[in-house]
Design brief:
Radius of gyration: 36 Å
Largest sheet: 5 strands, antiparallel
Distance between the termini: 93 Å
Number of helices: 11
Helix content: 40-55%
Number of strands: 12
Strand order of the largest sheet: 2-1-5-4-3
Bound molecules: adenosine-5'-diphosphate
Order of helices and strands: HEEHHHHEEEHHEHEEHEEHHEE
Length: about 375
């Protein structure tokens, strides 16, 4: 026989059933919220009103390399030995958020002990009824670095265009002047052969400058695209050095160019290109040592490579610029570099030529005492890859 309930029991039962239903709904809502938190790819924190971590998602643990035990129920600013104790974040959570209720794309840059310097965009929202704060963290470090690198490249290009147009225009203006002079003299009957020869020599020098500039631009393009052609063979490096020193000694009366050391084995590479490297280093040594006379080329070899050093006793290069000068369009910022003409391409081209033939280039320098540029040439042909 079915037991009948009195009205009080009936009410209790209905209430219990209601509570059970509420519990199921709350559980479902929690599962739903959990699923959202875990699905979001950005690190996400749920903080209570005391700024203790109620929840953190997997993306948070992954990015900041912390565990749930180190995070859950901890005060945000004490997490991971205070790594979140960031003044601008404190200002955001304690001062701005209470009045604004939500914040979008608030940028924070900070050095975290485990993951280093990171740039993050924070989005925060206060949920008033539940006394909770949602804090979404977007790591924009890579994106910001890429944008900065791009901006640097654009700036370099602008500078390059400005310098190139200036450098190309100067010899053209001189050439134009000389041509006009020659024309005027030809019309008026001339002033003798000596004057004409002198003008022609000057014009020839300007044409050389232009040719050099245009070849540098072509070299950069070809080397960068990996399209330079190489004519490699065995050759005597001692002879190459003495040939180039003899040629360059004709161009300077102030400097004494000499070499030290001889090497026994022949080296393998593109003789003309390596000659170009040596000429470039020697021309720089002359250009950046206006007050000092000796420039010394040293030669040495070990089992698998020959090393060439080009030493001057000139201005030297400050430590911070020593790595940069091998980059494209990099020019020194000191007075010596500003006074000397150039596109900042010579060392880039030289280092590329050396590296693409299996060698390496570096510099040792002391400001005020001078610089030595070194490069190596393999004694064996490069293995084809
Ligand atoms: P450029 O001479 O046209 O500026 P380079 O690529 O040959 O271009 O050189 C880049 C920079 O390196 C120069 O602007 C100069 O500041 C520095 N540099 C190169 N060689 C020397 C040297 N022997 N002594 C001092 N500074 C040098």
């Amino acid at each position: 026989m079915k037991k009948t309930l009195d009205p009080a029991q009936e009410a209790l039962l209905t209430r219990n059933q209601g509570l059970e239903q509420d519990k199921i709904e709350i559980q479902a809502a929690r599962q739903y919220a959990d699923a959202i938190i875990e699905t979001v790819r950005e690190p996400l924190l749920v903080l209570d009103s005391d700024l203790r971590v109620q929840r953190a998602n997997a993306a948070f643990y992954r990015l900041f390399q912390v565990s749930e035990a180190e995070t859950h129920r901890r005060l945000l600013f004490e997490l991971g030995n205070g790594q979140w104790n960031i003044p601008s974040l404190q200002a955001l959570l304690l001062e701005i958020l209470p009045t604004n209720h939500w914040l979008t794309d608030y940028e924070v840059e900070h050095v975290f002990p485990r993951i280093g310097r990171h740039i993050m965009l924070l989005n925060a929202r206060r949920i008033e009824e539940r006394q909770l704060i949602l804090l979404a963290i977007e790591d924009v470090t890579e994106r910001t670095r890429a944008i900065q690198a791009n901006e640097r490249l654009l700036r370099q290009r602008e500078e390059f265009l400005a310098i190139t147009s200036h450098e190309l225009k100067t010899p053209l203006t001189s050439l134009k002047g000389y041509i006009q002079l020659v024309q005027r003299r030809a019309r008026t009957g001339g002033e003798g052969e000596d004057a004409a020869t002198d003008l022609l020599v000057r014009m020839d020098r300007q044409v050389d400058k232009l040719t050099h500039l245009v070849s540098s631009l072509l070299d950069v393009t070809m080397l960068q695209a990996g399209k330079a052609t190489w004519h490699t063979h065995w050759f005597d490096l001692n002879l190459l050095v003495s040939d180039i020193l003899a040629d360059l000694s004709q161009t300077t009366t102030r400097h004494q160019l000499r070499s030290e050391g001889m090497i026994q084995p022949q080296v393998f590479g593109d003789r003309d290109r390596l000659g170009q490297v040596l000429t470039n280093l020697l021309t720089n040594a002359i250009k950046y040592s206006p007050q000092a006379t000796p420039v010394v080329v040293t030669l040495s070899a070990d089992a698998d490579k020959a090393t060439v050093g080009v030493q001057d006793f000139g201005t030297g290069i400050v430590w911070e610029q020593q790595a940069q000068i091998f980059e494209r369009f990099a020019r020194g910022t000191d007075a010596a570099a500003s006074a000397a003409p150039g596109l900042g391409l010579g060392l880039y081209i030289a280092a590329q030529i050396v590296e693409q033939q299996g060698g390496h280039m570096w510099v040792k320098s002391q400001p005020g005492d001078g610089s030595t540029f070194f490069f190596t040439i393999p004694l064996k042909p490069l293995q084809a890859s």
